Amino acid sequence: MGAGQCVIAKVFSKIFSHEALETYLPKIQLVIQDTLRVWSSHPGSVNVYCEAQKLTFRLAIRVLLGFRLSDEELNHLFQVFQQFVENVFSLPVDLPFSGYRRGIQARETLLKGLEKAIQEKLQNTQGKDYTDALDVLIESGKEHGNELTMQELKDATLELIFAAYATTASASTSLIMQLLKHPAVLEKLREELRGNGILHNGCVCEGALRVDTISSLHYLDCVIKELLRLFSPISGGYRTVLQTFELDGFQIPKGWSVMYSIRDTHDTAPVFKDVDVFDPDRFGQDRTEDKDGRFHYLPFGGGVRNCLGKQLAKLFLKTLAIELASMSRFELATRTFPKVMPVPVVHPAGELKVRFYGLDSNQNEIVTETEAMLGATV
Ligand code: HEM
């Protein structure tokens, strides 16, 4: 690991500190509200997975990197990024038109776009009222007496977007699907929000969202935990064996690559009853099915290489759930729900088409919660 990379590893943890999350929260809320307004103003249905991908990309660009791009520039960068992601796991054969080649080209185009945005950011330091993750990255590099090079900044930026993008889009889509499938869960969530003075007449009260307030919402926490148990976006990870060890009578030699499975762990951990049922109450204070053992529940991986962005991811998903709960209605636009595919991340096999109503550009037309409970309409 180079000195620059070492610094990056140290400052990544600063990017996701409690203090930093508090700064990001109003921006996260704004990006989500804007997106839900656009979805609601759509005359037809919304392809949720595709739109959730755009939402998380926008989140990464605006909240984490603080780039001020026009919608047109943002859409262009998103298309290039999608091409990069789609081809990232292609075979490493560098033939013209092969996925690998397209992936490399997309990466280069992306890095050029990022360089332009970073340069603009470095030049426009006046009148800034918001500190984003990239600012922290740049400043912390200086603090550690090791100013990051443009290449290191670009790589770290791309790593952040890449790590946040597919996982969070997957979880956001699963969240919407599960709230549609389980109106009682959504209603219980609304009750919790109302009880804590966060919802008033169906709207999130201004200034009501703070990191500590969100953390104190127990039922919301159970919903997100259960979502990430049953629909953990990533199926597992790889590790290199540093020291030969024995497992169930098998010797695993030093130097081997081993895979740990998040999904199999969640499916087989004896602590969970009725593993296939979406039941947020399993994490409630009466049952706390996750209390035994450290490694039964690991949507964000385990050990030293676990997910650095997990607090941000949870904060984003919780804010999305709060904003969805405060909307008047959203309903499935097809007769049945699409099947769910597990790889490369959990996602709907077909399109998850949903109609959103409620928040118009003036935040009008919020109907009462009783009207909102109609079959798969929530
Ligand atoms: C629901 C959303 C997310 C899930 C389920 C998730 C899950 C994971 C998992 C399982 C790993 C470890 C992989 C392994 O064992 O090798 C990981 C690593 C990582 N994640 Fe996340 N992640 C999410 C969101 C995010 C976000 C929003 C960010 C940043 C903005 C992020 C940044 C990272 C980074 C930087 C690593 C690499 C850590 C290292 O190698 O030391 N993740 N994530």
UniProtKB/TrEMBL annotation:
PROSITE patterns: CYTOCHROME_P450. It catalyses: all-trans-retinoate + reduced [NADPH--hemoprotein reductase] + O2 = all-trans-18-hydroxyretinoate + oxidized [NADPH--hemoprotein reductase] + H2O + H(+); all-trans-retinoate + reduced [NADPH--hemoprotein reductase] + O2 = all-trans-4-hydroxyretinoate + oxidized [NADPH--hemoprotein reductase] + H2O + H(+). Keywords: Endoplasmic reticulum, Heme, Iron, Lipid metabolism, Membrane, Metal-binding, Microsome, Monooxygenase, Oxidoreductase. The keyword NAD does not apply. It is found in: Endoplasmic reticulum membrane; Microsome membrane. It is a peripheral membrane protein. Its main location: endoplasmic reticulum. Its cofactor is heme. PANTHER family: CYTOCHROME P450 26, CYTOCHROME P450 26B1. Belongs to the cytochrome P450 family. This is Cytochrome P450 26B1. It comes from Ranitomeya imitator. The lineage of its organism: Eukaryota, Metazoa, Chordata, Craniata, Vertebrata.
